[in-house]
Q: What sequence folds into this?
């Protein structure tokens, strides 16, 4: 009869072989996916309507809902910020990054970045069509919008694009401070773009939260795949080349 430790030891050894970063990434994916599903359920049942509308109303002047709170220049600044999450800007940034990676002979990474961003955009479209939440009408929109509301496309696509590019490009940096800086800028842009959609009255706060969750989950999955397959393969190739010498 086998001793219980004989059966447990291989399992313990396998768990120890798993890198801590991978466990943290899977934890982030699980948490983000759970939060998104909870938000989607609450949104479809209408349970978040009171919270959403209260936030939107608090960002407008009580005597004129067409005028947002704050100085006049703030509206122009927010409008500029929200354009950073538009399809045109994100497409240009993605293409410029992909061509840069091709120029420095990171062909595999360039193709992966392109596929990762395109995949995120496709998922965003499917989620919008599946949930089919109308845009908020409680306050006038400060920019023209014509598609559905949940999840926020700007919030999700900016998270997908900036977080994916930030995570992958930071991997190419030698200095730790440079890697942290790139990640922080990617996160900051994602947050600012999402908040700008609420300020402009074109999205409910829960639309933006849902977009952040879905975008972060997809960007994290892309990072896991890249770290395992793309960077992992490159490391093995370097080791084999070093051994052959």
A:
């Amino acid at each position: 009869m086998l001793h219980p430790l004989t059966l447990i030891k291989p399992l313990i050894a396998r768990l120890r072989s798993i890198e801590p970063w991978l466990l943290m990434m899977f934890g982030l994916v699980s948490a983000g996916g759970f939060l998104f599903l909870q938000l989607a359920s609450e949104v479809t049942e209408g349970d978040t309507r009171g919270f959403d509308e209260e936030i939107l109303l608090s960002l407008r002047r009580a005597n004129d809902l067409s005028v947002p709170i704050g100085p006049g220049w703030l509206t122009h600044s927010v409008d500029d910020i929200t354009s950073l999450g538009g399809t045109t800007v994100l497409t240009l940034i993605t293409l410029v990054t992909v061509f840069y990676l091709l120029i420095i002979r990171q062909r595999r990474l360039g193709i992966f970045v392109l596929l990762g961003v395109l995949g995120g955009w496709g998922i965003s479209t499917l989620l919008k069509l599946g949930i089919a939440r109308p845009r908020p009408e409680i306050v006038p929109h400060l920019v023209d919008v014509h598609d559905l509301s949940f999840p926020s496309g700007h919030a999700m696509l900016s998270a997908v694009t900036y977080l994916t590019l930030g995570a992958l490009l930071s991997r190419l940096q030698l200095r730790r401070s440079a890697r942290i800086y790139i990640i922080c800028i990617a996160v900051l842009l994602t947050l600012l773009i999402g908040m700008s959609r609420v300020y402009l009255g074109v999205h409910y706060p829960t639309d933006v939260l849902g977009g952040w969750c879905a975008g972060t989950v997809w960007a994290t999955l892309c990072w896991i795949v890249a770290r395992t397959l793309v960077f992992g393969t490159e490391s093995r190739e370097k080791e084999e080349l070093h051994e052959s010498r």
Summary: The first strand starts at residue 60 and ends at 61.
